[in-house]
Model the fold of this input.
Amino acid sequence: MTPRFIDYPFTHRPAAEVLERARAFRAALETRRSVREFSAEPVPRAVIEELVRAASTAPSGAHKQPWTFVAIADPALKSRIRAAAEREEKLAYGGRMSEEWKRDLEPLGTTWEKPFLEVAPWLVVLFAQEHGLAADGTTSKHYYVHESVGIAAGMFIAAVHQAGLVTLTHTPSPMGFLAEILARPRNEKAYLLLPVGYPAPGVQVPDLARKPLDQVLIVRESAPPPSR
Done:
């Protein structure tokens, strides 16, 4: 099949403007934080739809777009998800996690209890499609699934922040209960559980510092010296 191409609607900007736009976006993301206390204030479904549309602009292997977002507002479903997640989390904190892991979590103030799973107006579960699955049961290959879904997850989180809402990347382990409760097909595996909404009034977050640039960036503007 001959591929079809269209013109890319690119606007060329001078370097100074590019830098300013990069700084402005970085400054906006600097204020993003994971929030564990949510308001029950409603968020319109149309907002969630736009967030998923934004996330779905992510690149993916062979453009297979191997993700499914399931958005839950039903209180009964949220209650079931919370109960199942807390069962797994209680087992994790009770013995599955190493002592080092639990010590590393102490600054975040987390416990096995997850009330935000019922309080937040929306739960968005991101599923990774391990392969394509047609209505007749035939399968098709997906490529770089976890990389593709990870990029979509990051873009969803950025979109939530840009919209003026908050979220949290919750990963109760194992997460098989999500596919069961939400009746997802066998080719889908839960990747992330993201409550979405407004923060609770007066919410506080841990006082954390991010790594400085010199710890996360290595620049090579010329070839490095040969190793000995």
